[in-house]
Write a structure and sequence with these properties.
Blueprint lengths: L2 H19 L6 H27 L1 H9 L1 H23 L5 H23 L1 E5 L2 E5 L2 H4 L3 H14 L8 H4 L13 E3 L4 E3 L4 E3 L4 E3 L4 H27 L6 H33 L4 H5 L21 H9 L14 H8 L4 H5 L5
Antiparallel strand pairs: 1-2, 3-4, 5-6
Helix pairs in contact: 3-4, 4-9, 5-7, 9-10
Keywords: Acyltransferase, Lipoprotein, Membrane, Palmitate, Transferase, Transmembrane, Transmembrane helix
Family: Belongs to the DHHC palmitoyltransferase family.
Main location: membrane
Length: 346
């Protein structure tokens, strides 16, 4: 046995043990997602670490003005916590929504069955008779049918079930749902698949995602200010420290511009009740074809959209029906002065 084969078998054995200890590492998709998460945390730690290591004035400020630094560190921790919370949250999978409906139906069927139970007494013992049709020979089959009925009810009459069925999950997609090839699942109100978070952004976690971008932007801006304050301070220091700080400042400023644009873009989507996917692929999405560009078919007005996005998140499996032709026509009507006075857009 050569040294190479011994090394190879040792390496393979160590890798197998590693996979047994953490099964998530065996999947290449999870592995890359894990690597990105580690990289993101490291990037945050390096930035803050360099800042505190180079800037002695910042250490003095911690003693003089502890609240200022405490707030900064609090934002730093909150951003990382929000990152992991968003990353671990469900975007609202169609299959989960179907299962939730199945459970709801099962509970409802059980309750109605109990109510229909005819209870008679014979020699002091209870005889319970159940209605066979209530039980159903194939409860899953009946539930699947109720899901199909529910989904079909959200589309215009005459829509074929075949056109709504996802060829990968074999499940009927409600409006605004899309199959994600990275997650290999259909997602409700699909926005996009975020590589940095390693998850999809959909109805279930869009609000958390917005808060994460918001916190990341605030942290980036604050760190930018601290970097500028360090460079502007009239203290004699090594040139290489200045060079590193300028490099960090340039990267931070570019990231800040991107984050701000991203935050504004997602705020616009929320206010108009759109998703990134719907905005980018508007002409290719069947249910959006033929709708004028400036018309937002799912918008219920700025205030209502904002309320539903922020406050009506108790149900993570929200299903939205397609607007009718009359509703689209109403939305296409140009705004008059009276509309602005009566807050039609709100
Ligand atoms: Zn699918
Ligand atoms: Zn995905």
């Amino acid at each position: 046995m050569t040294i190479t084969s011994v090394c190879q078998s040792f390496f393979n054995g160590a890798l197998d043990r590693c996979y047994r200890l953490s099964p998530c590492l065996a999947d290449p998709a999870t592995r890359s997602s894990l690597g990105l998460k580690v990289a993101l945390v490291m990037l945050h730690l390096i930035y803050v670490g360099i800042l505190f290591l180079f800037d002695n004035h910042l250490i003095d400020k911690t003693k003089q003005d502890p609240w200022y630094i405490a707030l900064y560190l609090l934002l730093f921790i909150a951003t990382l916590v929000q990152y992991f919370v968003t990353s671990g949250s469900s975007p609202g999978y169609v299959l989960d929504a179907m299962r939730a409906l199945n459970e709801k139906n099962a509970v409802f069927a059980k309750a109605s069955m109990t109510a229909k139970q005819s209870v008679s007494s014979k020699d002091g013992s209870l005889i319970v008779t159940m209605d066979e049709s209530q039980l159903g020979r194939n409860p899953l089959g009946s539930n699947v049918t109720s899901w199909v009925k529910l989904v079909l009810g959200m589309y215009p009459p005459g829509t074929s079930v075949r056109t709504l069925t996802c060829s990968y999950c074999n499940v009927e997609q409600p409006p605004r749902a899309k199959h994600c090839h990275d997650c290999d699942k259909c997602v409700l109100q699909f926005d996009h698949h975020c590589v940095w978070l390693g998850t999809c952004i959909g109805w279930g976690n869009h609000c958390r995602f917005w808060w994460y971008i918001c916190e990341e932007t605030a942290l980036c801006l604050w760190t930018d200010i601290l970097c500028i304050a360090y460079l502007k301070a009239n203290i004699i220091r090594a040139w290489w420290k200045d060079a590193i700080m300028i490099l960090l400042l340039v990267i931070l400023s570019i990231s800040l511009i991107f984050l701000l644009l991203f935050l504004l873009f997602h705020s616009y989507l929320i206010l108009t009740n759109q998703t990134t996917y719907e905005l980018v692929r508007r002409r290719r999405i069947p249910y959006l074809r033929g709708i004028p560009e400036r018309v937002y078919p799912f918008s219920k007005g700025v205030c209502r959209n904002l309320y539903e996005f922020c406050c009506a998140r108790s149900n993570i499996y929200k299903l939205e029906r397609l607007p009718t032709a009359i509703e689209i026509e109403e939305k296409s009507r140009p705004h008059t002065c009276l509309d602005f006075l009566t807050c039609r857009c709100c």
